[in-house]
Amino acid sequence: MKPYYLLFVFSLLMLSCSTTTTKTEDNTLALEVQQYLDTYTNQYVKLYYDLSLAQWETNTHIVEGDTTNAYRTQVASEAFANFTGSKENIEKTRKYLEQKEKLTPIQVKQLETILYQAANNPQTVAEVVSKRIKAETQQTEKLFGFNYTLDGKPITPNGIDEILREEKNITKRLAAWQASKEVGKNLKAGLVDLRGLRNQTVQALGYKDYFTYQVSEYNMTVPEMMEMNKKLISDIWPLYRELHTYARYELANKYGIKEVPEMLPAHWLPNRWGQDWSAMIDVEGINLDEALAKKEAEWLVKQAERFYISLGFDSLPASFYEKSSLYPAPVEANYKKNNHASAWHMDLQQDVRSLMSVIPNADWYETTHHELGHVYYYMSYTNSEVPPLLRGGANRAFHEAVGSMMGLAAMQKPFLANLGLIEPNTKTDETKELLKEALNYIVFIPFSAGVMTEFEHDLYVNNLPPDQFNKRWWELSQKYQGMVPPAERGEEYTDAASKTHINDDAAQYYDYALSFALLFQLHDHVATTILKQNPKATNYYGNKEVGNFLKKILTPGASRNWRELLKESTGKELNAEAMLNYFQPLMPYLKEANKGRKYTLPEKI
Ligand code: X8Z
Ligand code: ZN
């Protein structure tokens, strides 16, 4: 028995001394439920760990033609699905939940978690579940086993990203962008299959579709979630419209193109999906790519760890460094790995890992902070008060927000100076710095809250026909990002599927949109209330009060209601106000810069 159960049973026994009969009955039920939860959790953690280990191999060691990992993942997934989706567990849990007023809130939350998990794997549709598992593994292997080539030579995604960030020759840019999208062609059939299978599995337990299922984890309906995302977009739209106009003209100039296009050609932007344009701007005096090029990749990970430690968090366990997969697979290696960044809570206990392809540049510097945010979240809620079933974020957006906030903080000037990554007395252009940040944080919103969220909504809720995948993707890109493909992209391509999350993190991308709004709320609170520093020029380093503020949010995991937690921590509801305030000074600057330029996005969306 784990210590938290002992504590819990003890307190129940104390309660059971009460004399009224109903109380005694209640306590008997609560004890029975606790016993059930204990047994369930024991088995759950074991199967969860087996599955994580198998999936870890599938994502870190992809060898063409080798089916060992796929087989192992299939076996572990089926064992996990058979248990979590079993009729017995579903019926028992439902029965207990019918009497939820007799149970403690934390018991109710765990039972709800059990039912939620069951809906992903109901035994009644075991065959569908098994097919879905197979299709998921196949899709991951196709996506990350893909051999990217440019001019007939192999190239890594990091290599493509570098070209898109730095190359000024438009023909070379086009070739790199096209190379980055080839992978999608091969993923369409799998995505069609997965859409059907994902929908069918959750429908068996009464959810309308997979998107509705994922949204329900926030205790929200789909219209509520779509509304929240739309509001984020309309709030930042005036600023985005300025950035869009600015980027069209500045990039045309940079590439030596006379006629400024109405919409941004996708291959002009310094990111494969146009989700982050910050590499467009060089701020004199702050050249992070150059400063980091002098460091080893390992320094970036260790530095992110040092930042968390400085706030009062523990060191990462030795096993983190032994077991993680932090650096890219060499081009000549006989295996490939998932090239997107992720963090893993393997056993819901102490085995925490990260999967990255860190090279010493500014993007990865930010990403190491992001991933360690997940890892420190895991470590914080792995405590005796939070049962394994509730070891998750207050909601999924909280999980994404923490590390992104630390990434933002780690990019600010006083912090960089403190680290010696820039000269302490450098005079920099603050407006340019702010512009660079807006090209990251503001630009991301139309992509995440608009393109990704609506595409997946249409995919799962509206059963978007496969012969419209690419058409819809580009319609949305044009509407929200003001971005168009370099040339007609027919349905032989599936450009949406070149984005990792469409394949392996389905129907959840609004997490990131919400997390950006949230991170500015948290950052604003930290800067103004705790540090009493300008939110645009903070240095959190070494501040234990900031650490304590964060720990208060992280430690309860999913045992707290997220709306209450947010209100308690910041006094506010989730909204874009802090983010807007942060970037407001850019408006007059951009309006001036855009004087006489033609705006091609509508004033309102
Ligand atoms: O996927 C991620 C993280 C993984 S946990 C690196 N992010 C989104 C993306 O890359 O598309 C972080 C922000 C956006
Ligand atoms: Zn993340």
TrEMBL record:
Keyword terms of this UniProt record: Disulfide bond, Glycoprotein, Signal
Protein name, UniProt field: M2 family metallopeptidase
Signal peptide: 1-22
Pfam (any one): Peptidase_M2
Membrane-crossing residue ranges in chain numbering: none
The organism's place on the tree of life at top rank: Bacteria
Keyword Signal: yes
Keyword Amino-acid biosynthesis: no
